[in-house]
Amino acid sequence: MALTCEDRFVITELIAMHGHLCDSGELDRLDEVFTADVVYDVTDFGQDVLRGVAACADAGRALGDRNPVGHHVTNIVLSEQADGRVHARSKGIGIYADGRSGSLTYEDTVVRVDQGWRITHRKVLARRAPLGK
């Protein structure tokens, strides 16, 4: 099945919604972005892989004031896979309360479920050096 323009719009909005929910502290709504059994890989930041939407919400709460005040996502590129899944690659910018910022890449696998499109796997990669070094 071909990915429609509407699918692309909905998936792009889904990826953007993550930042809005986190920044507003609405972590109980992460099921609007992720599947219940999401695998959220933050090992590049020295953390364990999070399994399940509740674990993602709990991790956000545990970070407390160490969370960014702004999660910004940009440069979203979607690639349809043969099995109907979508690979989404995007850039993230985190802004902290003290003015520091950081850049990262999200590598997502997006699937269509009964509730609509959801992220079932996310790998978060820190950007620490220019030119992919």
Q: Classify the fold: give the CATH topology.
A: Nuclear Transport Factor 2, Chain: A
Q: What is the annotated CATH architecture?
A: Roll
Order of secondary-structure elements:
HEEHEEEE
Largest sheet: 6 strands, mixed
What's the number of extended β-strand segments? 6
Strand order of the largest sheet: 2-1-6-5-4-3
Class of secondary structure makeup: alpha+beta
Mean pLDDT, as a whole number? 96
* Shape, per Cα inertia axes: globular
Number of domains: 1
Estimate the helix proportion, in percent.
Answer: 10-25%
In CATH's first tier, which class applies? Alpha Beta
How many angstroms separate the termini?
37 Å
Protein name: SnoaL-like domain-containing protein
Pfam family, one: SnoaL_4
InterPro entries: NTF2-like_dom_sf, SnoaL-like
Domain SnoaL-like: 6-123
Lay out the secondary structure:
Blueprint: H1 5-23, E1 34-41, E2 50-51, H2 53-63, E3 70-80, E4 86-95, E5 101-113, E6 116-127
Parallel strand pairs: 1-6
Antiparallel strand pairs: 1-2, 3-4, 4-5, 5-6
Structure description:
- The protein is of the alpha+beta class and 133 residues long.
- It has a single domain (5-132), classed as Nuclear Transport Factor 2, Chain: A (Roll), CATH 3.10.450.50.
- 23% of the residues lie in helices and 42% in strands.
- It has helices spanning 5-23, 53-63, and strands spanning 34-41, 50-51, 70-80, 86-95, 101-113, 116-127.
- The chain has a six-stranded mixed sheet, covered by helices on one side.
- Strand 4 (86-95) and strand 5 (101-113) form a beta hairpin.
- It is globular and about 45 Å long.
- The chain starts with a helix and ends in a 6-residue tail after the last strand.
